[in-house]
Amino acid sequence: MKRLISAALAVVSLLSFASAALAAAPIKIGALFAVTGPASFLGEPERNAAQMVVDEINKAGGIKGRKLELVVYDTGGDATKAVQLANKLIKNDHVVAIVGPSTTGDTMAVIPVVEKAHIPMISCSAGIKITEPVKKYVFKTAQNDTLAVARIYEQLKKERKSKVAILTVSDSFGSSGREQLKSQASRYGIEIVADDTYGPKDPDMTAQLTKIRGSKAQALICWGTNPGPAVIARNAQQLGLKLPLYMSHGVSSKKFIDLAGDAAEGIRLPSGKVLVADLLPKTDKQKGSLLAFVKDYQRHFSAAGDHFGGHAWDAVMLLKGAIERGGDTPDGIRNQLEATRGFAGIGGVFSYSPRDHAGLTKDAFVLVEVKKKDWALVK
Amino acid sequence: MKSDKLKFLVFCLVVFALPLPLSTGYLTNVLIFVGINSMLALGLNLLLGYAGQISLGQAAFFGLGAYGSGVLTTQYAFDPWLSMVLVALVVAGFAFAIGFPVLRLKGHYLAMATLGVGVIAHIAFNETVDLTGGPSGLSGIPNLSIGSFSFDSDLKNYYLVWSFALAVILLSLNLVNSRYGRALRAIHDSEVAARVMGVNARLMKVQVFTLSALISAIAGSLYCHVMTFISPTSFGFNISVELLTMVVIGGLGSVYGSILGALLLTLLPELLRTFQDYDIVVYGLLLVCMTIYLPGGMVRGIPALLRRLVPARSGNA
């Protein structure tokens, strides 16, 4: 008798399994984020935001009745690991698309893998090399450095400042920024009178700043991610450096104001619109997405949503759009991604094309200034 | 002697048969890196385990090999095989030259000096942007190929890398069992005694340092052609420390110990992924436990532990 019951149970459970599988196999999406290591300030909000939006899509019934399944791996910001994990996502987990990686280095390492396997990837890192030249299966959501540099130079030109000093960090973010600052300067009639770098872990930048003080610069542009720029802001204040200080979008989060304290006052930087979502005019196309993202992130993680999380949010939403429009195979998704036009996300309004896999214009950035320990729009 | 040959043959067979059941999985990809790490760990073990000289700068030679091959093949259109040989020779020459002053130092001072070499190399990879691409890395490195046969898949690269690794293992086995190897161990135990016995300790230390740099450079060249992309983060101080951990955990002065150490430290993070956010804690705990309970490394520690456990159990029964 006992045997009969267990056999019956087995049959029933098998049937229910089979029917569940028939109803809708989940669509598997891979994610590579640097959740630990030096780039964890990127990877953690990205993982949070990606998981948050996937959960929400599933709660709302999935995409065409199929749930999404997000497989997240931590690269630790190590290129070798990123390659191994990309292989794992493709060969073991059989994902149809990959979100991430978080850093330009990891992304450049993974590109040959996804190109060979024909798996679409939406990177969350900023380096211009990722999509220039265009690679068939590689897209990105983080704004190009070119656009951020253009935003700063435009403002300087408006204020008739033509001599600048630049101080950039010696990592992939800083060297890419330095390249852009140098190559775009002449277009805006700007001359770089001092060009210095600092190490990502340097505790004091007084030496570089003293040198810059002796130059004829009318403004200082610093390119780096936390905590370096905060140190520079403090050092500049200690030295009584009177130059207007511009930072990159790499520090556009509340963390920077916390780190720099009073020294942050008056510093300007180009930023994605997420920082100033509530200050934007009602006519802004992104305002709806931005407010929803900020509110959601606050509710789930009791922290302010920043644009890093936004990159992952955009990537998952772009994938959702592509799958909805008829692609659930890697190649279908790739083709639909490329056909994306006018998607108003967190990082900007995305329009991909066969010649542009970055998809943003310089409207993606606004120039903000730190006023009374908060962000304000520069008009 | 005969059992040594048999052991090596069995090992070769295992290496060649291993990917057959998992040819499509990503494990083949991980095993490629196990092969590269094995070569690096062996290179360090010859220096540290046999001659007793520490080096915290192995990542420098690994990186020089990788960047040398990468830069020559992408910027100057050199043949990959030719550049591999050239780079290996140049790196070996470089190691030979710095070996004389550096290896005069002992203990902590030697560790500091080699650490310096590693740090300088890492800075050089970062700062020579025009040549190496700087922190954003160097991409577009070609795969190795013989005629029209290109090593463009994981499986092909697995056999390529492990052929080199096996050659290095064979070389090391022969070396440590020779008169030369015995002299190295004599230096390890007492440099003064070795010199009294007529061993040219100073020259031999530099020679084995050079050999270890040569092996690391070849591993670096292979790494860059397998990855087709390199960036300075792969050649930092933490890599030198990881290699040191592989050698110590596997077993100082044991050729197969280094392979075991490389296998464990490369696979362990993959196996621990089930612990999710806590994997790094478990990883650390495991390493601490291993150094406490398996002194002398896994090759000696595991048999010793078994011997201790087995009689204890029979005693209870």
TrEMBL record, chain A:
Similarity comment text for this entry = Belongs to the leucine-binding protein family.
Q: Residue limits of the Leucine-binding protein domain?
A: 26-371
- UniProtKB keywords: Amino-acid transport, Signal, Transport
Gene3D superfamilies attached here?
3.40.50.2300
> What protein does this entry describe?
Branched-chain amino acid ABC transporter substrate-binding protein
Q: Which InterPro entries match?
A: BCAA_transport, Leu-bd, Leu_Ile_Val-bd, Peripla_BP_I
Q: Please give the CDD domains that the UniProt record associates with this protein.
A: PBP1_ABC_RPA1789-like
Which SUPFAM superfamilies does the record associate with it? Periplasmic binding protein-like I (SSF53822)
**Signal sequence annotation:** 1-23
Is this entry keyworded Ligase? Answer: no
Q: Which organism does this record belong to?
A: Geomonas silvestris
Lineage top rank: taxon:
Bacteria
GO BP: amino acid transport
From TrEMBL, chain B:
Originating species? Geomonas silvestris
One term of GO molecular function: branched-chain amino acid transmembrane transporter activity
What broad class describes the main subcellular location of this protein?
A: membrane
- The answer to whether UniProt assigns keyword Nucleotide-binding to this entry is no
Q: How does it sit in the membrane?
A: Multi-pass membrane protein
* Transmembrane intervals: 84-102, 109-125, 158-176, 208-231, 243-268, 280-299
Q: Where in the cell is it found?
A: Cell membrane
Q: Tell me where on the tree of life, at the top rank, the source sits.
A: Bacteria
Keywords per UniProt: Cell membrane, Membrane, Transmembrane, Transmembrane helix
Protein name, as recorded: Branched-chain amino acid ABC transporter permease
Annotated InterPro entries: ABC_transp_permease (IPR001851), LivM-like (IPR043428)
Q: Which GO terms describe its cellular component?
A: plasma membrane
